[in-house]
Design a protein that fits this description.
The structure is a single chain. This protein is an alpha+beta fold. Helix content is 28%, strand content 28%. It contains 41 helices and 77 strands. A hairpin with a 5-residue loop joins strand 12 and strand 13. Helix 3 packs across helix 4, helix 18 crosses helix 19 and helix 21 packs antiparallel against helix 24. The longest helix is centred in the middle third of the chain and has 33 residues. The two termini are 62 Å apart.
Amino acid sequence: MGLFSFIFGRKEKKDNKVQSHRQEPRRNSEPVSSQYSHESSDWQNSSLEEGLDLEGTISKVLGCGILVDVGRGLGFVHVSNMSCGFLTKEDIAAYHEGQKVHVVVLGYNEKKQLQLGIKQILKCEYEEGEEIMVLVRRKSETNGLESITTDENHIKCFIPADELSWKQDKDADDFIGQSITVKVLRFNTGFKRLTGSIRQMTDPWTTPNDIKEGKCIEVRVTAHQDKGILISTINEGIPGRIFKNQITWLVADDDITNDDYPKINDIVRAVVTKFNPQAKKLNCSLRELQPNPWYSMQAGKVVSGTVINGEPGNYTVRLENGIKCKCGDKVKMPLRQSIEFMVKTVDTISRTAEVSKQAIDDNLQKMNTINDFFNNRVVRRHAFIIKGVVLFPQDVLCDGNPIAMPFALKFIDYVNSHPECLIKYKEIGEISTPQANYTRIMVDVRDLGYHASLSDIDALRNAEVNVRNIVTKTENGYIVQVACRLGYIAKGNLDATENIAEEQKARFVAFGDELCLDRIDIEHEDIEGSKAAESNTNLFHLDNDEIEVLDENDRAIIEAFEDSNPKVNKENINRVDLKLYVSYNPDTMPQLRNFLESDPDYFASNNFWLTSSKNEKDIQSICIYDHRNVMLVCSANDRFISVHDFYHDRQLAYAQQELNHNKHPLFLPANNLHLCKMFDVPGSFNAEEVRLNIARQYDIFTRILPNLSKKIIANKRTIGRDYITMSQYLKYQQNIERKRLQGIELTVDSNHIRVGAKEGSREVGLYVSDIQCGKFFTDESDTQSVKVLMNGDRKCQYIMIYRTDKPDEFFLFFKREVDLKAFKENGIIIQPNANVYHLQIQQESVSNFVDKSDMLTRLEKGEIKTPTTDNSFSFFDSKFNNVEPENNQPLAIRKAVGNKDIFLIQGPPGTGKTSVIVEIIRQLVKKGQRVLVCSQAHSAVRNIYDRLRKADNNINIGFLDEDDTMRPVSFKDHQLFLEHNINLVRELAHGNDDKAKLLCSEYEKTYSDYLQKKFSTMHKYLVQYFKDVVHDSTDVEKLITEFKEEIMHLAEKQNGFYAAGHVSSLQVVMATCIGIGTDRDIKNSGVRFDTLIVDEAGKANLAETNVPMQLASKYILVGDDNQLPPYMDSEDVKDFKLSDEAKGLDEVNVEEALGMSLFEYFLKHPQFPKENEVLLNYQYRMNPNLGDKISDLFYGGKLHNGRGTERQNCDMNGFPDAVTFIDTGETRNINKYNPYEVNQGNGSICNPCEIGIICQYIIPSLENLKQMNGDITIGIIAPYNAQVRELRKALKDRHSSLADCVYTIDNVQGQEYDIVIVSFVRAFALRAGKKVGFLDDLRRLNVALSRAKKKLIMVGNIPTLTNIGAHYKYHVDNRWQPVEIFKRIAADATLHHADLNSIDKLDKNNIRPGYVFKDSTIHYVQKGNRTCCYFDALVGNETLRFALPDNLGLTEGTQCDVRFIALHDKKSDRPVFGIADPVIVSHDADRGIVRLADGSEKSVVFNRGKLITILLTGDLAGVSLPLILKEGIAGLNYQKLKERALHFPHQPGDKVQGKVIAKTDKALYIDCHVALGTISTNYYKAKMLDVGDTVTCRLWKKKDNSMTVALNLI
């Protein structure tokens, strides 16, 4: 019986249900007499509402709870519902009968018996993450802790075992009885129970560690999950995960079970695959530490293994390398024995394999059969004859195909011995002999149950395998065993020795059926590549790319087909030129018979289409049909091709299906198809050869050739995977831009629109006053393409919207002529037009470069064409004739002019690359080439344009940034010009010279702005020279006629002609890389350029360079991979890596792909010819001292100083040397010279100290120099935008003109200045993990340092910059590491220091921690609400002021000794000082007198802390204690007590002497002079001691965060 059965004496009713979900499961309880059953006889008839508060009287106190009379019967309060905490029997016994209690109704149990609760009345709430104090009571059964809160609620709190410690190194027993702080994980409000965590009180992710991706670490397994295992690092306790697919190589991911996991609490070594402390993510891998056995798995390979479980048809086998795989052999195999298996199939991606022992046994039998056949070991019967039937070897088939003769004869032998097995056969003819007549039969071994286990053909198709056994040698070759298959190698495929050896490499050329031999070729080495290439180009007229991707099996099919059909190639592969004889049985096919009777020549006289296929039984089917819906469906084998279905009605379902399915047929011309009755096929017709040729031709036409182009693209994309990443990134950017503008639409009424001209331009448009227009812009842009509709009009205009100087006003410019007034009066609707055209252009160019260009594949093959050194010309610029003997400038120019493919010029800073580019352009133009010049930056193109214009004004140049150079003469202007010329000629012919001159002035105003001057001048020339060229009226009429004809010609061609004609007339076109791709005139002109020159090519990403490359045939890239790389937004890249567009990309290489230039890609490619690159090796910019450093640090000493660099110097007050470094590393005065950086958030870092040094010490000298020499140029450079902003602000505050000379590093590539100041910014107190960021980017560092011509001044923190821990280590060949670069810079430069701070001065005067400043004067000063204490100390010849704590109790002006304690405190770099502790002179329980460090005595009231209260019960007279004294109140300095206990100068076991100063029931308190000690009074000897006794004891232990050390009596 249950508890309530005892109490109430009721019988159980099975249909009653529990009404409350709050009731906890009942515990076992003592039996209760049934005498109480009558007390509840009536209350069951009326129920109480759940949650109702009642007052009741205790009727009975039981061991498991109490019975309470609530006035309407009895209710039971179980012990679990009496209190939120733990209850003992004594606690329950405290309740007594008749006692009034408050209860709450919990509900009714299944017997409708009332259940009550007391603890549910308690109202309390705890928030997740809240920190609470609990008292640990005991250890739970799961090794967790059961505790109660120490607040007034006394709630039970369970602490799971895994929440004790991140490291899982804490024992639950250590916490029992302790009061500890925990963090709330969950609070069950119903049961009033908490779940807490000790480990959540700390954050292991903030613990310093050296974990990084790729590192091997030790971890502890903490839990098993379906998706993998949970772990924590041993040293830091950082939680992480190992996913299921990272556990082992040996088992497929889906088959991994918990048995494959390491056990919980096991410590294992793992490789870190992902570590992101910010995202709190740690992923590791076990399998990366294991060798991958799948690399050695190959179909056909023989391996050893053991059957571990299973049954016939479904065994599990563990191979020697540990891999678990399946075996489907249907024979019984022993368990736990080593057996040899053959690998049938293997999938290294999903890590699955199937093996077979039966395949080895079958193969052995086949080998014996072949040996018997060729060695004539047995007497054979060559036919099976029994009971009037005869079976010949050639009639033994497998799946409808003849089998090899050794196997056929073996089968004949077998059936002669076992005739009963011949249960199924097919009669194929009659044979008459003098003795008897026989029925000839055909047998398919498949019908008799034959099955062989073979390796997977697809897996072997391209595999390189070893010859395992040489079975036998024949007259024409060898029969060998390869991958548990039997194959034939013809002697023609062997080398001159005609020998092969076991384990020799081989490949399958063609696969036979199970009982036929495969065709195998031996792999020959040392085949001359050029000869192979020559033979490849002739194969089937395939080109080199197609040959490259053609696999061996497809190649064998094409070769076999080409041997039989030498006139067929890929150009005419769709035509079948074979005579095809198809037989049919007129008796079984009456429809076909009737059709032929009505039109006997139909099939011979018409063209047909043909398809070929195989069914699941590998039987070939040929379908022949024409446009009239006539169809023959034929079966084909080696003996005949016969019709088995005929259709001449397309509506028949099967015919419809066949016609729809066969959409890529071969063409079968008339006279090639012949239908014959059975047995009427000509004997010369070779059905086997024809059907094989058809199958091969159809396979080549429909599969092999179409797949070649796909394979070529796939191969190119594999080579160009970096470009594919860039393409996907561009696609991602387009989608982001479209999403940004999605849903934006703005309606503007006429009141907010005005018509006006754009400021500084004659362009007229609409001004819109609506701040919401700002939504159409990105943060960086000032222009945006939008769509505009007039209200009430459906036609939209694509226009440009511009920001103006007013934040709420925007300018709309219409490219086409529209009625602006109508737009203004009706109002407009503005819609976004995603500005993605430039992104689409880039994406298209990348795709074309990868898929259509052969450059990447030629690069991989080492087939880039090398340039010739063109010595046929003289230099336009004579300076190239007089350069230094080893200068590479002339060589670079001559090779660039002789370039045949792609040529790279590496131009370090100041090497004259612009001069070289200008010379190359002039030489190419001279040779008649059209040249395209591009760069990633407008400024670089502008520089070349200006230099080329200045050097040669006769070259016809078009520059996209100069509209006048790109605009063709418009049709209207040109037509008007010609008409004006006619008018002028007529006036001049009549002698009206003055009127003609007046017309010239009037005509000038009628032309477009950019044509006015040009056309007006031509009119004036006509007037001026008219009389010299026109002599009579005939000449006048001829001239007018020519003008009219040209006007008619213009009308036909219109403006497009002129745009294209103008572009075609340009010898040189210049633009940015993106600008040239988006210019529609260039695109529409169809113009191609002979040579593309890209300047600053190292700064353009792959896509930007690809855009102009689409327009040229040859390329010259000029750049420097040691200077700025392509721009990459790191935050944008992070988002991209998480996007759908990045799926399938190699995550590790995304940053590399997006941050790489094509210049760098080719320069560093191992196959790129060294002949195609030249380094400009003489610099003409920098002072030699600076030039030598740049050469040594960044160019391996290959960069030399050119003539004239020795004159690059200037005098500057305070900075006499060319290179100076101002070090802030000895500046630690936090108030005056805090050398450390300030992080403004989002990576914005500035350094006020460096700004102060620049403004205070450098700028004055620069301004004086600038006054004396106004031509001097100055650049102030910093790596961070925040530093640039703060520097500009500080200089503007000083009213310095140099505020406009401050730049980021990214803004100065290509620029140069006489004097450069570089602020390195990064400076911090060194700690693990903090790095200097992109100061480690040597390319940026090179740009910053190499801008200076005469003087370089650097400001930085040498201790930070030269500390190896502040830098990443890079894997670079023959280059300095970043930390080494900074060490060299600091060592070689003239070193200046900022002012010494107090620590430096102490150190300089040999004042170390422990030094005592005697009789120092104490001072106080008020700072705001704080009172600060300090003392003056004489350091050397200087009096310095140092801070002291303000709670010492000393008075102003008093003197005492001050001790130098430490170099710095935890919060700053200030030195730490202290004075002697106060000595207690006398005291009672509350008050006392203390002697201070200056000898004065003071009366104090003691703060009633727990420890001081205990100590005051003893005798503290003469005891020195660390006290905090403020306003007459003294309290213990707990932090100092903890520090002294922790640093107590003894080790456990050492003897310690002290004096008992206080005693309690539990402990003695000992004054150990340095620290406070305790001795437990559990020991008898300790109880005998009293206050004032001197004791000798041993140190037991020092505890973290304890104010005392634990001692034991000796």
